[in-house]
Sequence to fold (484 residues):
Amino acid sequence: MIRAAFIICALLLVGAGAYLGHAGIWRESYDLDRSVRAGSPGAGGIIGRVK
Amino acid sequence: MTDVRSINCTSCGAGLDVLGGGRVTTHICGYCGAELATNADYKVLRKFADMPRPVSPFHIGMRGRIKGVEWTIIGTLGMEERWDGQVWVWTDHMLFSPTHGYAWLTVEDGHLTFTRRLRGVGTRVWMSERWVETAEHPPTVKVDGKRYKYYETSNTKVTFAEGEFNYRPEVGQTRQHITALGDDAMLSFSENDGEREVDRTEYLPQSETFAAFGATPPPPPATVHPTQPYVGGAHEGFLARASFGFAALSVVLSLWFWLQPGERALDVRNIAVASLPQEFTFDVPRTGQLTRIRINSDVRDGWAFVEAYVTDPEDRPVFETGRTVERYRGVSEGERWTEGSGGSTIRFRPELAGPHTIELAVSETGKWFGSGIRRDNRAAIGQVGLTVTNGVASGFWTLCLAGLFVAFGLWQHAGRFLHDLRRWSGTDWTDED
Fold:
């Protein structure tokens, strides 16, 4: 009983995660604070280092 | 069935039951404390006085089954260990079975354990005080294929003795025991009159054993005994395995979502910044998924703020936002470094299908030169690129779910882990030595 309940709950969670992921719900990124400015290193991470 | 006989104490005349077998050498009168030699017509050897009677739900004469064998309690010892201001007390009951000989039933903090001598093991396996004191890692021995790791060195003292014993208990004297703990039992190494003795202690099923002897069980122990086996939930293993399985499934789903290429709706390269602001049109064939706008640039030694204004098929604004694109170089301690990708991404969920418009503009720019980089008058940014992709999925939620499943699976194992920590909490081994 507990095992079946766990499997059902887990499948529901995976289904919900897959739906949210497929639809991209709450993954929009256009509403970020537009006042962000750079001007010097440190606003982002170092992405490459060449010897 | 054991024959019950009785004698009168040769010191005080009290009636004493004789319950033990032929190996009993000592009988200590519970009334006057006289130690009687059973193989010398119960001659009085000495007398113990002022012995504090230990608390125990068991008493001499009780019978019960342990591991399928019927045992009779024939003796009781009150035991004590003192160290660093702390005092530990427990009660050992000597057991006798006509078919299985002698053993010990111990009551300590409400825990019941069963101890038997391992005959002949002391000549093959031994853990000495010197080994313990000079070892860099906890000494370990193997007996019958099972591994036992050093647990503690204790000096125990007999504070009370009553009944029959197959040796002479020394009330008031201390004796050193070195103990080693395995998964389901503890070994005790001690020397008695130059003879090496190895005893094996295991945890008993508590309520069954109390019931078997007709004893009233004390309140459940609040502590974990070193030999106490872990009793997990009935579904613990299954839930842990299933959780890790679902975590793997969630990771696979995340990767699948992230590897979806989507449908390219617009790809414009080499847009001169000087020609901005400029409008570009892209089609959204259907709603229900993310659309990704990627802005690339040739920005170098500086930054630029790119503004994007998107309108839907009915020319209503969807959003207006801005992104900094940046890329810096420099030399630090002889190493070249770069920072920033020169690009940025915007994601949104279109509410209407049809042609959308994006207006791009660069509103601000700036230069920044890292150390070791020659300054120039070149503009920070010259060109931008724009790609729009429909039907984009996100693996974020399934990855979160994977984390959740892993945490749940680990939590299923945490009970055993914490139990083992508590079992070993009494060890006196310290790695600093």
